[in-house]
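ESCALATION

Customer reports they have been waiting on this structure for their group meeting. Please prioritize. Original submission:
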Amino acid sequence: MSSFLITRPTTEAEVSARKLEHMGHRAIFAPMLRVEPISFEIPDEKRTIILTSKNGARHGLANIGNKNRSIFAVAEQTAEEARSLGFTNITVGPGAARQLVPILLECGLKQKRAYVHLCGTMVSYNIADVLRDAGLDAVSTVTYQTIPNRIFSPSVQEEIENGAIENVLFYSPRTATIFEEAISENNKHAWLSKLNAYCLSNRVADNLLGPWKTINAAVLPTEKALFSLLS
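Update from on-call: job pushed to the front of the queue and completed.
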């Protein structure tokens, strides 16, 4: 049995932990981000909704009454979050926002669609800007904020110091960066040579700059591909 530190927000971490435990591993939580909803104006009915994250779906769709609104979602996990809130008119796209753009462009140009991207305060890829540059009507609506957490609990610190935690899971470039900032702020540089990093993609791995024992990246940006590295 191996031990894995999960750095994603608690709600998502709980789901990942159950999968890890089913695989025979031990999961420990160390969320680098806290997600909080913020107030926003419900998007106009004429706009097709774009979702690029589960948090965008969870916090952006909660107060939208029309469950038949047209939605384009990045990856099945995001679409499933929308379905859990009662939405039915969902087109599921590839696993990255960049890969969804060709589909949005085709539909936008052919069907004269206007779009709204329900997103957080921090956006690594501004899909609305890309669509506007292509001549489409697209806006972003911020529905949640992510707050960094650069503090390790005493129990996590003790387990890493004692070698009881050997691996860290990273699901986004931002959490990777915040983790290394927390290492620096807490003067725990010696930890990195003891830890293996497992990243959802090469883009996430590229944000790790310290002297890790190993850095591993999934071939595809899915949790299934990420967990295949753990065998």
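Sent to customer with the following note: The chain has two domains: 3-32+149-228, 36-146.
Escalation resolved.
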